[in-house]
Amino acid sequence: MRLAAVDIGSNAIRLQITTVTTYEGTTNFKKLEYLRFPLRLGLDVFHNKKISDKNKRKFIKLMKAFKLLIDLYEVDDYMVCATSAMRESENGKEIVEEVKEDIGLKIQIIDGNLEAELINLALWSYIDDKSYLHIDVGGGSTELNIYSKKTKIASKSFKIGSVRALEDNIPLSVWKSMNRFIEEHIGKKEKITCIGTGGNISKIFELSNPPKNKTFIQIDKIKEIQQYLESFTYEERINKLNLNPDRADVIIPAAKIYLAAMTAANSKKMIVPDVGLKDGLMQVLYKKNRNKKHTSSH
């Protein structure tokens, strides 16, 4: 079975095509194709409330390219989900309709709660009976989920994201409401481990040079990496640290968001699994199609 997932974020757009096989009772997910295109829709939307004509044209071209790949790989089923930038954009629904009419690609604009639910599907293997705060920082929003004894006890989406923070576009009241949410649901004496998802925390984790098989990072190390990144100019982060241009600027504000949430939770440690929205979409697609021999959604 071949499945495709597209995550239309505020800072970048990702396509993953996966083949799913079952052998001797074990189901294996193997990545066939992964593409990340740096189209920053969030910058338009958080400034002007709509996607610019230039970025709209680029977006439509990208959706054509993704649809071609989905067809070339003869994918059985796919899901395309758009998050914060598209849901806040005045012309988001109109663009989604145009893509459906012209290209035949169906895009779902999802809210923050569903976004969090989908990411959670990919996280279950990391969650045990202890308490966890899951922090997912995107370009336009941050999703928080709190778990205790393998049960989600609270969940909320906040308009705090790396692209918004880059533009200094987050009111103090929103930061306060995020801290309040964490403090209300996590007891001060409770020892809690954080789980961080999103491209920026994955890159911070990578920059920490973790030993093989290590999946967590200490808060002090995140602070150290943040200070290290701040010691370089934007150009140096691209040329000396080899960061993508659309990662080199947002990684510092993203680090601040992760650190703010960890500090509010009084947490010292963060697990960094390499999963995100696209992996949750794969889980949904697999559950939907596992009993079918051949399916097609397009």
From TrEMBL:
Pfam annotation, one family: Ppx-GppA
InterPro entries assigned to the protein according to its UniProt record, in alphabetical order: ATPase_NBD, GppA/Ppx_hydrolase, Ppx_GppA_N
Molecular-function GO terms, alphabetical: pyrophosphatase activity
Domain Ppx/GppA phosphatase N-terminal: residue ranges: 31-282
Transmembrane segments: none
PANTHER family listed in its UniProt record: EXOPOLYPHOSPHATASE (PTHR30005), RETROGRADE REGULATION PROTEIN 2 (PTHR30005:SF0)
Protein name as it appears in the record: Exopolyphosphatase/guanosine-5'-triphosphate, 3'-diphosphate pyrophosphatase
Species whose genome carries this gene: Cecembia calidifontis
Higher taxonomy: Bacteria, Pseudomonadati, Bacteroidota, Cytophagia, Cytophagales
